[in-house]
Design the sequence.
């Protein structure tokens, strides 16, 4: 069966087409569009492109379109993206203003353009279903919790891929199998001892760090919203909740203006004085821009903070994994994150680290107690697999 996986941004549409048969998923082709103003037209263009390339004869050749939605009220896991799910996403648009509105719009456009094709979404929160409750609660009144004010965790598809792939590389097929079957057997498939302890660092336009015990996430640096945790390209990251009323009352800005600043003018952009791409920030820092250097230092500090937190909760570490655009392509930042952690068993091999850009590799010394790895993430593959399973089971 052919499954199209679509990644919807506010002004972009990226896609990958997979042929899924038996236990295998083969990437057939991929493409994307930037600066999208009319989504319906762009979907038509993408479908035309697949026809022109000979990949499909018509939309009817697609068994489903898979999506990677963020958050919906009362819904997680892998579900059909019908109107009730879109309404549940609408209910939480305030929590994910940069993500939910474009997703809702994009999925509605897909359902207009291909009304007979199943549209299936794997929610980014799904990987955290087995995290301990104590790790996911905020100290808020119960009435707030009842409205969904708790940690959710995101980047689930990416961290799930890392959980499975790192287990394979560490020759723990029992754990890899558990991860692969997570949403089928609810994480209960047995694994052997000892526990496998992994921290996954997804550093990109959005960044998050997850602790993983024998294939199950124990928590994620992203909390209630995808604006929390580490500083993101334009989004704020961790912020004391009392900053918001103080800034609004003292400057007189509206809630909407404060939200917009926290989503569009904050994070690495806010710290560096206007640069949101790590390549530009590094260039600025090299040219002597101290704000840009500070932005890098905050990112590194925060990464170490979360790695440390999960290493402690896991009672040590077997593997530290770097993934996504920043982690995969910047050996210098990986080196700075791993500096002076030899007493914790994290011993980078400087030459292997330097030589590893955008490819899978172990970058720690041969005798390092903790294996440090770079693993390019593959969220689309995780979604294609899950969509295939959904279609098979439903
Ligand atoms: P997103 O969260 O948007 O998917 P990515 O995972 O693509 O983000 O990561 C984007 C970040 O990765 C940007 O800060 C970018 O500078 C950085 N990045 C991507 N490619 C490279 C590269 N070749 N060298 C250095 N940094 C890179």
Sequence:
């Amino acid at each position: 069966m052919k499954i199209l996986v679509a990644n919807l941004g506010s002004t972009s549409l990226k896609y990958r087409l997979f042929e899924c048969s038996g236990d295998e998923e083969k990437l057939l082709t991929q493409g994307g569009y930037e600066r999208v103003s009319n989504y319906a037209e762009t979907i038509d263009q993408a479908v035309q492109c697949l026809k022109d390339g000979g990949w499909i004869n018509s939309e009817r050749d697609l068994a489903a379109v898979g999506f990677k939605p963020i958050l919906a009220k009362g819904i997680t896991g892998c579900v059909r993206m019908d109107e009730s799910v879109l309404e549940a996403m609408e209910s939480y648009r305030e929590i994910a203003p940069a993500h939910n509105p474009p997703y809702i719009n994009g999925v509605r456009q897909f359902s207009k353009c291909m009304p007979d094709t199943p549209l299936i979404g794997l929610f980014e929160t799904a990987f955290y279903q087995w995290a301990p409750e104590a790790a996911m609660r905020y100290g808020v009144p119960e009435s707030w919790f009842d409205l969904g004010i708790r940690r959710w965790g995101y980047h689930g598809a990416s961290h799930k891929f890392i959980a499975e792939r790192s287990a394979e590389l560490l020759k723990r097929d029992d754990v890899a199998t558990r991860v692969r079957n997570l949403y089928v057997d609810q994480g209960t498939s047995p694994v052997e001892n000892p526990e496998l302890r992994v921290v996954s660092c997804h550093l990109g336009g959005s960044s998050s760090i997850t602790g993983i015990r024998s294939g199950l996430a124990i928590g994620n640096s992203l909390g209630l919203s995808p604006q929390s945790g580490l500083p993101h390209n334009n989004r704020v990251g961790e912020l004391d909740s009392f900053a918001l009323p103080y800034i609004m009352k003292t400057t007189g800005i509206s809630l909407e203006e404060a939200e917009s600043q926290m989503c569009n003018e904050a994070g690495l952009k806010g710290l560096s004085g206007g640069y949101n791409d790590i390549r530009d920030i590094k260039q600025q820092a090299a040219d002597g821009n101290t704000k840009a250097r500070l932005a890098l230092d905050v990112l590194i500090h925060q990464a170490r903070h979360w790695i440390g937190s999960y290493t402690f909760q896991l009672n040590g570490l077997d593997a530290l994994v770097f993934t996504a655009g920043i982690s995969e392509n910047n050996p210098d930042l990986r080196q700075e994150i791993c500096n002076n952690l030899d007493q914790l068993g994290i011993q980078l091999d400087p030459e292997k680290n330097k030589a590893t850009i955008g490819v899978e590799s172990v970058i720690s010394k041969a005798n390092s107690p903790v294996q440090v790895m770079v693993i390019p993430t593959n969220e689309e593959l995780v979604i294609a697999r899950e969509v295939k399973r959904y279609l098979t089971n439903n």
